[in-house]
Structure formats: C-alpha cells, structure tokens
Design brief:
Elements lengths: L1 H18 L4 E6 L17 E3 L2 E7 L3 E3 L3 E6 L9 E9 L4 E9 L4 E8 L27 E7 L5 E9 L4 E10 L7 E13 L4 E5 L16 E5 L2 H8 L2
C-alpha cells in the first residue's frame, strides 16, 4: 500500500508539473526605449531593446517618445513605398507563440508581419536608408505567424493568432505600407510588441505498470517512470 501511495504521489506531482505554465513573455516597450528622437533611422546601426536585437531593413524607422516607432510610407509617390524592420528572436520548433503589436495609424495604412528564417524574399534598396522603400509594397506574407491588418487612428493591440513553429526561425519581420492617397507622407506608429513563447508539453511512460502482491507481502516492486520532455521545455520550466 505504501509503494502504491508513493507511486500515486509521484504521478500527482508529475501531472501537476505537466500543467505548469512554462510560457515566457518578452515585452518590448518602445516608448520607454530611450531611442533617439532626432535620428532618421533608429535601427541603423542595429540596437538592443530589452535584450532583443532590432535592425533596419528597408526605409528608415524613426522614433517619437510619446508614440514609439514611426514607420513611414509615401502613398502619393509615383513609386509608393513603405518601411520595414526586423527583430532577432529564437523561434523554436514545436513551440507555440502568441505575438501582439500595439500600433496606430490611418485606416488606409497596413501593418504586416511574419516569422522567417532569412530575408531572402524581402528585397531592399538599402538597410541604411531614411526614406520609404518601394520594395516594401511588394512584400508577401511568408513563413509562420503571417499577419496583416488595417490600422486604427485611435490605436489598438493587434493579436497575431497563436501559431506553432514547424521548424526554427530567428526573425520577426514587421512592415508598413499603404497610407492616405492624398498624403506625401503617412505614418504608422508602434508602441509595444509582446512575444509569448510556450514549450511543448512533456509526457511520460511507465514500465511494470501492474504487479500482483499477496496482502502483507514486503517484497519490493519497482515501477520505472520515464519522463519525455524537451530540454528547452525543462529549461523554461526551471528558469535556467
């Protein structure tokens, strides 16, 4: 009876462990970032915000201390363009991800983003530019976590539907295009990005799952419980 109690006790602890929220959240608050308000491209050279590297890819990302990042478009140009940047983040295979972007802009503006392993499908005139890049208008949604939305002038938190990574990737690309047709320059602002990472759950197997014992028997019976959990999930759970 005592051995059975120990076994059930272990199973209870393990199942409780399985239900533990392994999720880790990274919050990138641009308003509190201290970026330069005078630079025409704050991500050239690349900068780290809350230990997350940001870099310019097309057009120039500017900064306003009350609204955050400014991604400009030039809708009235003969070759309309937009602005794109990327975040370096370790997106792991089989992990679930929730991403939210707090942004504001006219309804004619479009906010787009996706997670990719490289930038091969995102052409650019220059990664050091300060002006909208016409290449951005031709960007397609590829990879994982593909998302696009028209923005609101009052600002909203846009939640990218949860997705599970099929493989590993390291880049979250974010860009703005469109804009009010009568404007030479239109701006979409981003004040915060939040990334929540949830590892896949572990599992277990039991050998010698049953044994017949006569009442009062003291002979030991060994139950072997093998946990199956990814190293990343264990590290996330233990916070190491």
């Amino acid at each position: 009876m005592k051995k059975r109690t120990y076994l059930f006790g272990f199973l209870a602890v393990f199942l409780s462990f399985q239900k533990t929220a392994y999720s880790q959240t990274t919050t990138i608050d641009y308003i509190q970032s201290g970026l330069s308000t005078s630079s025409c491209n704050v991500f050239n050279p690349s900068v780290s915000i809350n230990n997350v590297t940001h870099a310019s890819h097309a057009g120039g990302v500017k900064f306003n201390s009350s609204e955050g990042l400014i991604l400009s478009t030039n809708p009235q140009s003969t070759t309309p363009g937009g602005t794109a940047f990327f975040i370096q983040y370790n997106f792991l295979a089989n992990y679930k991800y929730d991403i939210s972007i707090m942004a504001k802009g006219r309804p004619e503006l479009q906010l787009k983003s996706c997670v990719v392993p490289n930038l091969n499908q995102f052409s650019t005139n220059s990664t050091t530019s300060c002006s909208p890049d016409a290449n951005v208008n031709g960007y397609s949604l590829v990879g994982e976590g593909r998302f696009e939305t028209a923005t609101s002038i009052n600002g909203e938190t846009y939640n990218i539907p949860q997705f599970t990574m099929a493989g590993t990737s390291s880049l979250l690309v974010v860009w703005a295009r469109g804009g009010k047709p009568t404007l030479d320059l239109d701006n979409l602002t981003i004040s915060k990005i939040v990334i929540t990472q949830t590892p896949p759950a572990g599992s277990f197997s039991i050998s010698s799952s049953s044994a017949s014992m006569t009442c009062g028997t003291t002979a030991p019976v060994t139950f072997t419980i093998t946990t199956i959990i990814t190293p990343q999930a264990l590290q996330a759970t233990l916070g190491i």
